[in-house]
Amino acid sequence: KTRGVWGEVRLRALLEDALAAGQYVENAQVTPGSAERVEFAIRLPAADGEGALLPVDSKFPQEDYLRLVDASRAGDTEGVRAARKQLESAVREQAKRIRDKYIKPPATTDYAVLFLPVESLYAEVARIDGLLEALQAAYRVLVAGPSTFAALLTSLQMGFRTVALQKRSGEVLALLVSVKAEFQKYGEAVQKARTRLEQASGDLDFIDTRARALSRKLRDVGEDAPALPDEDAN
Questions:
Q1: Which 3-state string (H, E, C) describes the chain?
Q2: What are phi and psi of 178, to 5 degrees?
Q3: Cβ(183)–Cβ(190) below 8 Å
Q4: How many CB atoms sit inside 10 A of residue 216's CB?
Q5: What pLDDT band is residue 173 in, cutting at 50, 70 and 90?
Q6: pTM flag (> 0.85)
Q7: How far is CA 103 from the centre of its chain?
Q8: 130 near 66, Cβ under 8 Å?
Q9: What percent of the chain has a predicted confidence (pLDDT) above 90?
Q10: pLDDT at 176
Q11: At what angle do helices 119-127 and 131-139 cross, to 10 degrees?
Q12: Which of 102, 130, 105, 129 is nearest to 115 (CA)?
C-alpha cells in the first residue's frame, strides 16, 4: 500500500508540473454509474469541447524488481533469468487489469498508460525483448517511466496549446467577420455623408453665383440712377 501511495504521489507531481488543474482528473470515473475509478486520467484536448479521458495508473512490482536486482548483483545468471521472467509476468498481468478495468471507449481513449515510478524499474522492463510492443498490441497499454511519461505530457501540452490556438483563431475570425460588417456600414455612412456634402457644396455654389449676380444688379442700379440735385446750388 505504501508503494502504491508513493507511486501515486510521484505521478501526481509530474501531472501538476506539466498540466493545468482542469486538464487531468484524479480518481476519475471512467464508466458513468460505475464505482471503478482510475488513479488519474488526462482529459485530452478536442476542438469541439472536452475530449476523452486517457487513463493513467501507477504500478510498482517491487518484489520482482528487487529479486532481479539482487540476482544481477550476485552474478546469478539463472536467478536473473527467472526474476526477469517473473517481472515480465507481473507487468503483463497489470497491463491486462488496466485494459479490463479502465479502457472504456468512447468515455476513454482506446489505450491507457501503465506508469512505473522508478527509472531503473522502467529500464529493466524496457530491456525485456519485445515486451513493450507486445503490451501495446495485446492490451493497448503504454508503459512509461518518469522520463518517458514527462515527454508524453510535453507532447500532450503542445496538443492543448494547438487546440487553444484553434479556438482563439475561431474567435478572431468571428471578430473579423463582425468588423467587416461594421466597416461596410461605416463605408455606407461615409458615402451618404459625402453625397450630402457634395449636394450642400453645390447649393453653396449656386447661392454664391446668385449672390454675385444680385451684387452686379445692385451695382448697375447704382450706376444708372440720376444724380440728385445739389442743395447748395439752390
A1: CHHHHHHHHHHHHHHHHHCCHHHEEEEEECCCCCCCEEEEEEEEEECCEEEEEEEEEECCCHHHHHHHHHHHHHCCHHHHHHHHHHHHHHHHHHHHHHHHHHCCCCCECCCEEEECCCHHHHHHHHHCCCHHHHHHHHHCEEEECHHHHHHHHHHHHHHHHHHHHHHHHHHHHHHHHHHHHHHHHHHHHHHHHHHHHHHHHHHHHHHHHHHHHHHHHHHHHHHHCCCCCCCCCC
A2: -65, -45
A3: no
A4: 10
A5: very low
A6: no
A7: 24
A8: no
A9: 39
A10: 45
A11: 90
A12: 102
Cell triple for 167 = 479556438
- How confident is residue 199, by pLDDT bands cut at 50, 70 and 90? low
pLDDT band at residue 204 using 50, 70 and 90 as cut-offs: low
User: Which residue type sits at 90?
Assistant: A
How many residues can be counted in the chain? 234
Tell me: pLDDT of 228 over 60. Answer: no
Cis peptide before 106 (omega within 30 of 0): yes
Q: Are 76 and 95 in contact (CB under 8 A)?
A: no
- pLDDT tens for 45-62 read 765 666 789 999 999 888
